[in-house]
Amino acid sequence: MKTALIIEDNPDNMVLITRLLKKHGYETLQATSGIEGYEIALKYKPDFIILDIQLPDIEGTEVALRIRESEISNSIPIIAMTSYAMAGDRERLLAAGCDGYIEKPIDPERVISQIRHIIGEIE
Amino acid sequence: MITKATEKINNLAPININPLTESLENLQKLHYSILLAIPHAVIGLKDRIIIFANESVENVFGWKPAEIVGKSTRILYRSEEDYEKIGKHFYPILEEKKTHTEDFPCIRKDGKEILCRITASVIGEKMTDKGIVVMYEDITQYKKVEANLIESERKYRELVENANSIILRLNSKGVITFINEFGQEFFGYSKDEIIGKNAVGTIVPVTESTGRDLKNLIKNICENPKAAYEENINENMKKDGSRIWIQWHNKAVFDEKGNLVEVLSIGSDITERIKLEKELNKHREHLEELVVERTKHIERLNAELKEANKRLQELDRLKSMFIASMSHELRTPLNSIIGFIGMTLQGLSGELNEEQKDNLERAYRSAKHLLSLISDIIDISKIEAGKIDSFIEEVSLKDTIKDAIKVIEPLLKDNKLYLKFNLTKDIKLYTDKKRLLQCMINLLSNGAKYTESGGITIKVKKNNENINIFVIDTGIGISEKDMPKLFEAFERIDTHLRFKAGGTGLGLYLTRKIVKEILKGDISVKSKEGKGSTFILMIPKDLKKHYEPTSA
């Protein structure tokens, strides 16, 4: 059973993603800020990370960069979640080390398959 | 006036030949020659009967000498009256003075009247039997010329005297030698008072009221009459001391050696004109001041307007930013609504009965509609606030269109519509793929929504610079009335399909904004009500070219 770390400051979104993942058989870890997320990632080494880009303390891209810098966590797939990408966002996210991104609002019917696609569970 | 011919006759009296020593024959020859040489008619009379006539009688009167010798001089006059009159007049004078000259009308043989200068002299020491010699000089022509001359002189004199201009003649020293009546009256001097006086000090003041020194004015005019003083304006002075402005036209008169003899000047009073000009200038200056003032005012208003415009633009930008961020905030709770309803609808939280499912499906559709509205508004606001940059990459046109088709496939299936798209050779573009895709989805879904039977055909044409994508449907078309509002926000065409079609009312408005402002292309439409529509999307093949100059 794979474990996902969800870094998300909005409690409703947190519950939504958590429930969706759980219903599809994933374990979840939760962090509501960038720093907390980074620390949990190092401590528990989740199988993949779902990372909200707009966080209250540090930017999601910054979190991704830090996770990539550490040997412990640098191979964990990171899925960025972002509201409607602005120009240049895609490049910044991929450059920061994200493996893929899902645009918010998430489509509850498609989001699990999008995640599986990015972490390589399905083609 | 005594003519030379008359003199000759007069000189005959104490003739300088000695009749005692000369032969009679010689004397006769001499007399004959004298009479022949005289160009005027000469006759000898006794008791007013012609006793001889010279050859010139024919020239003057038309009579041959032989025709008139022996006849009364009555035939030389116009009437009996004239004949009597001249006789009564001449003979008493001749009695006393021996010779007399007077002009008197005569008549020729042909009846033509002539004026003659008649000179009569007594023959011998004393007049006996009214014996006289008379010479007739035809002065008709001469009198006519003289009359013409007098008339012409009179006309010019009147012209000069009565002209409504001052006419003045000055000699080379500036002394007034002539001034016409108008000039005398104008300046207030009588002829005697002014003729012979120097112009400076009389009609020309020593100093003008403007301060200009006029002492040497006349001297200057005399020295340089042509170029500098053909026309000059100066202040003049009347006898009573009042000042007036006169415009003078000067003409220098030179003698044969080229020395200046006099200056002829014609002057017009322009005091009133100068006064008016001054007033006009004052008004003009005032007007100029007014214009300057108004211009400044307008400039100030302009600046204010510019400032206001800037503020407005800034406000507009802030408004768009505000809408964009507000919409962002609206979307976050909507995420939850859609997410949780969606999850529940999938049955992930347990089985739903039919009614629960239907309720949630309706809520889910509304939430999705709200989401697309908000997304469109965010896009529009971002474009308006200049917050959307384009992301230019190499794009396969074929793939992009296929992606768009994939999105609307469910809609095509529902309406049982065909879709024809056959691009044999792919076209590579440099453009913003996401935005192009957005526009294509929009156009295709519009086509699908407003077509009840038939389908959609996509055609592509390219030229050196641009790609034209034609989206041709067999739908309900657009009426002429609806055409102008087609690309306006929230203007939805009123058809029976409106409710079924759904949509935000922002689709074409946003599409055009994206095409024009991000893809730097254009969108147009051809349609007839009931005959389908063709939307033409024109975009540049290489969008980079459109951004490079501004970012450089």
User: Of all protein chain pairs, which has the greatest interface, and how many residues does each chain bring to it?
Assistant: A-B, 19 and 24 residues
Low-confidence stretches of chain A: none
How many distinct beta strands of chain A? 5
Shape category of chain B: elongated
- Major sheet strand order of chain B: 2-1-5-4-3
Task: Let me know the average pLDDT of chain B.
Answer: 85
How many E strands of chain B? 17
Class from helix and strand fractions of chain A = alpha/beta
Structural class of the secondary structure composition of chain B? alpha+beta
Q: Please outline the major beta sheet of chain A.
A: 5 strands, parallel
Radius of gyration of chain B: 61 Å
Q: Output the strand order for the largest sheet of chain A.
A: 2-1-3-4-5
Features:
heterodimer, A: 123 residues, alpha/beta, 5-stranded parallel beta sheet, 5 helices, 5 strands, B: 552 residues, alpha+beta, 5-stranded antiparallel beta sheet, 16 helices, 17 strands
Summarize the structure.
Chain A has 123 residues and is an alpha/beta fold.
Describe it for me?
- The complex is a heterodimer of chains A (123) and B (552).
- Chain A is an alpha/beta fold and 123 residues long.
- Chain A contains 5 helices and 5 strands.
- In chain A, α2 (34-44) runs parallel beside α3.
- The two termini of chain A are 19 Å apart.
- Chain B is of the alpha+beta class and 552 residues long.
- In chain B, α10 runs antiparallel to α11 (354-384) and α11 runs parallel beside α15 (507-518).
- Chain B starts with a helix and ends with a helix.
- In chain B, a hairpin with a 5-residue loop joins β16 and β17.
- The interface between A and B is medium-sized, with 19 and 24 residues.
